[in-house]
Specification:
Length: 381
């Protein structure tokens, strides 16, 4: 599964795996893809540096990347405490009442909310970039808009490619104008922050909008056939996130949450602002439902909502409250039905890609109908 972009990056397969877990990112890289570690959950540069040092020791010199949350618009000289002071008391009361309704205990005395994401802050995000560029990364990706111009310049000076996610052709053109090296076309089906346009429509639109920049297809991709579809639409590779949540190397600690993911169908997700303040696809739970009820004050804008619910999310996860526990995940969750190591997922992706391409070759050669039965039997074996 090689493309011009994979050759440029020195990877065997044009599979880019985004994950918050270093062990998963390293395993993706070792299996021939490009593991991309999400930095936003690290509250300090020291925490991220420790994980990237671990990555360096476990990828065998193979390439990997880092994903940051760093919009082009700067938000400087603002502390977390100042932002938290903007949260209305009515919203805090709603969170307390919802947790009490489900009997969720407080965290132990002195324990801080572990889900407290501050990577969107200018100071923290820039420290993430500083640390990332001190390591031998090959890709710096930005999840919410393209990075500021000075960050793009620094990355290029270090020989690092810069990418950003886009949910529309308009966003993609902005990325191209900002001097980025590739665009990730993330469709409506994807987990996390997504737009309104489905992958099948979005990928060719963005390919046309930013040509000749390479594009990665993202959203609803978890099999080799789906990866082949993304390549057929003009992409130079695929960007996968959700499929890595249930691999054996995943640090998803909660057995309850892991079981919910393995049992979920493709219709069991919802785009909700309940987690971060921006529409993010996640498992539908009684927590997401609560924010849609008439008595809800409604989610706050980002980053207020994320800070508002940080303690609540940590409590729900710590005590594994089944009705409320969830996570960002895409519609591909319906095909995530068993735990497997990363290497097995990568092997299935590449083999499925080869089968899909071979099937299209047979059809293009006029042998598709005659060979349908044989091909189907081969795919099932």
């Amino acid at each position: 599964m090689r493309t011009e972009l994979s050759e440029r990056l020195g990877i065997e397969h044009a599979i880019f795996g985004f994950t918050p877990f270093p062990a998963v990112a390293a395993a993706i890289t070792r299996a021939g893809g490009l593991g991309v570690l999400g930095a936003v959950r690290y509250g300090s540069a020291e925490e991220l540096a420790k994980e990237l040092d671990w990555m360096d020791a476990h990828v065998g010199g193979l390439p990997y990347g880092v994903d940051v949350v760093m919009p082009a618009k700067k938000v400087e000289n603002v502390t977390v405490a100042q932002v938290e002071a903007m949260i209305p008391e009515g919203h805090r009361a709603f969170v307390r009442e919802t947790l009490a309704r489900y009997g969720v205990p407080d965290l132990p005395e002195g324990e801080r909310a572990g889900w407290r994401i501050t990577g969107w802050m200018e100071e923290v995000a820039r420290s993430h970039v500083d640390v990332a560029l001190e390591h031998p990364i090959k890709l710096l990706a930005s999840a919410l808009g393209h990075p500021p111009a000075d960050v793009v310049e620094r990355a290029h000076a270090a020989g690092v490619l810069v990418a950003a996610l886009a949910g529309s052709a308009r966003h993609a053109r902005h990325h191209a104008e900002a001097g980025l090296d590739l665009v990730i076309a993330q469709g409506h089906e994807a987990g996390g922050h997504t737009g309104e346009i489905g992958t099948m429509v979005l990928v060719p639109e963005i390919v046309a909008a930013v040509a000749p920049l390479p594009v990665l297809a993202a959203g609803g991709i978890g099999t080799g056939a789906q990866a082949a579809a993304g390549i057929a639409l003009g992409a130079e590779g695929v960007w996968l996130g959700s499929v890595w949540l249930t691999v054996t190397e995943s640090e998803l600690a909660s057995p309850v949450l892991r079981a919910k993911l393995l049992a979920a169908g493709s219709g069991d997700t919802v785009r909700s602002r309940a987690l971060t303040g921006k529409p993010a696809r996640q498992l539908r739970t009684e927590w997401t439902d609560a924010w849609e009820q008439p008595d809800s004050p409604g989610p706050l804008p980002m980053p207020l909502q994320g800070l508002l619910v940080a303690d609540a999310v940590s409590r729900i996860q710590t005590y594994e409250t089944a009705e409320l526990i969830g996570t960002p995940v895409g519609q591909i969750v319906g095909q995530m039905t068993e735990e497997r190591p990363v290497a097995a997922v990568m092997d299935e992706l590449t083999r499925g890609f080869e089968r899909a391409v071979a099937r299209l070759d047979r059809i293009a050669a006029g042998r598709g109908f005659a060979d349908r039965r044989v091909a189907t039997e081969g795919e099932q074996s």
